[in-house]
Each structure stands twice: as C-alpha cells, then as structure tokens.
Design goal:
Helix content is 35%, strand content 27%. It has five helices and eight strands. The protein has a five-stranded antiparallel sheet with strand order 1-2-3-4-5, sandwiched between helices. Strands 6-8-7 form a three-stranded antiparallel sheet, with helices on one face. Helix 4 packs across helix 5. The protein starts with a strand and ends in an 8-residue tail after the last strand.
Length: 153
C-alpha cells in the first residue's frame, strides 16, 4: 500500500506502529464510547491487538490532516468500514472527505457494497455516513452501494 492523497489537506498513510500518537486518541473516554461503546479507555495491549487485527483483515490507514495524524480508517474485504477521528479534529468534515477515497479504494478492489455499524447514540457518525450517501437499513447498520452510488461529498 502507498499513501493516498484525499485532497490538499488530507492524506491516507498506510498503517505502521505509532502507538505514542494513537494511544492518546483511544484514551479519550468519549471517543471510546462513540466507536466501541466502551466505558473505559484502551491500554497499550488492547490498542496493539486492535491494530494488528485490522491490519491483517483489511486496508488500514492513518488519516493525516494538515501534516498531523488525526485518526484511522480501515476498509475490510467484506466492505465494512471502520473510521475514527480524534476529538480535536472532529467536525471539520475530515470523515466525509476520507470516505470519498475509501469508496474509490472499494471500486478498485471491486467491493460492491460498503457497510458500517454505528451505535444508535452516535448521531455524529450517523450524520456523517448519511451525508456521504449511506442508507440506514437496520437500527445500527448503514450501507452504500459502490456499484450504483456516488458519494455526496
């Protein structure tokens, strides 16, 4: 995998161990609740296991915004998308812009449908995925047809 330029501010950087930076994201209790419905922060061991799993089971990238790592995104062969934006970088439309590139990667890999599992209380992520063109099909499941859809960025 190589770097993928999303736009003038955002680049997707292939995963490499960088726990000093990333552990701070996953020690934010609000973020842990949003993405994993956890009431506790990650420790280094859990973070390493998560990244190892995602890297082995998909295309895992860090999100670099204005030359600072601010999150991560993984596209799994099943079409599942996992995205995390660190709290200080949220509400800057980074997720929307990254999803445009993830949809492009899915096209290149001939993955016909994308899906995301989003907790009912995570309205921020729900809005982002819907804004990009995902449709809610179950209480916590959102889908996007890569074959038919065009991202609304």
């Amino acid at each position: 995998m190589k770097n993928r330029i999303v736009d003038g501010e955002i680049t997707l950087v292939p995963y490499y161990p960088n726990y000093k930076t990333t552990l701070t994201w996953y020690q934010d209790l609000d973020l842990c609740k949003q993405v994993d419905n956890r009431d506790s922060a990650y420790d280094l061991d859990l973070l390493k296991r998560m990244y190892k799993y995602l890297n082995r089971h998909g295309d895992l990238y860090y999100i670099k915004f204005k030359n600072r790592l601010c999150g991560d995104v993984c596209l799994q062969p099943s079409g599942e998308v996992n995205i995390v934006i660190a709290k200080p970088f949220q509400n800057k439309h980074i997720g929307r812009r990254v999803m445009k590139e993830i949809i492009q990667i899915a096209k290149e890999k001939e993955i016909p449908k994308l899906h995301a599992e989003i907790y009912t209380f995570n309205t921020q992520s729900q809005k982002m995925f819907q804004r990009v063109g995902f449709t809610q099909v179950e209480e916590e499941r959102y889908v996007f047809s890569v074959e038919c859809g065009k991202a609304n960025i």
